[in-house]
Structure formats: structure tokens, C-alpha cells
Amino acid sequence: MTEHLSDRVTALVALTFSDWLLKGADDSICSSLTAMMQTLSEGPQTVAKAACQAAHVLRESSIEEQSRCWTRAFCVGEGSVTPHQSVAVTGLVMQEPRDEVLQVMSDFGLAPEAALHEPADHLGVLLAFWARLLAAPGHADAAVSFAEKHLSWVSWVRAELAAKQPDNDVAMALVTLLETVIDDFLRKHVRVTA
Length: 194
What we know:
This protein is mainly α. α1 packs antiparallel against α10 (169-189), α3 packs antiparallel against α10 (169-189) and α9 runs antiparallel to α10. It is built from 10 helices and no strands.
């Protein structure tokens, strides 16, 4: 086991979770999630444990059930969770966090795909942009800053799911794994000051 995930592995994990959050669970995405979890099971202890737990939950459910869990978690009904940073921080969509993300993306000459029909602070969009920063030479500091400012709220998504859908094992396991990967990255790159 390694002490921390490499930034390249973290980038691939971010892209895999981005696809899941933006598109839901289909055969291709579930295959990607399974391959990702196999790789992560050989990573740092906390990540490996979360990956093994998520892999177990996915093995115990069909792709159709995984798709329903995603829909219930993020799309339909009062119990769904809106995975937007603006909602997590302000309680409303399209607020300051979205504007800040748009500015950061613009600074790098990027913008969210219009075809996505999601705001820039949707967790899936944030993860796709973060993956690009992680993969681009010379952008390590920007990737760390972006994670600190725009991904540290993922625990809110997990807490909301736990409160609203405690029986949604699929979404809970995957969001917990995502949170663990982000925490691993931040522990690797950010000095904790006492």
C-alpha cells in the first residue's frame, strides 16, 4: 500500500466520479467504477477500505438498482440532494461559489460544456475541471487551491444523503469513497498548522 494516491490516479478517479455524477449509472460507468475501485483497493489504507466497501455494495446490486439509487440521490423528489457547491454553502443555486468557479475556469481558458446543462459548481463539473488541473504540468498548486476551495464541501453531500436517504447504500458508499479520495489528496498536499 502507498502512503497517498498519485495525482494521476486522483485525476482518473475524479473523472470517473464526474461521469457518474453527471450521467448516472449505466454499463460503461459501472464498469469504470468497478475498475477504479480495484485500483483504489491497493491504495492508502483509508482509501482502500472505502473502495472495498463501495465495491461490495456495487457487487450486491444490479446496474438497474445502481441507476435508481443515483436517480433517487440526485434527481428526483424532496429527498434528493443537489450536488452544487452554492446549495451546500448558501442554500440556493447559482450563487457566489458558482461565480468563483466560473472565474477560475476562465483564468485557465475553460468553461463548462453547455451541453451538460449543469452549473459550473455542480460536483461533477468541479471534478472534471480538477482532473484537468491535476493532469496539466505546472498546475499542482492550482489543483490544491481548487480542491481546498471547491471540493472540501463533499462531506455536506454525504451528510445530506445520510439524513435524507439512509437506505441508499450505493450513493452513500460512492460519495464516501469520493470524500476519502479528496481527503487523501488534501492530506498529501496541505500542511496542517496547529
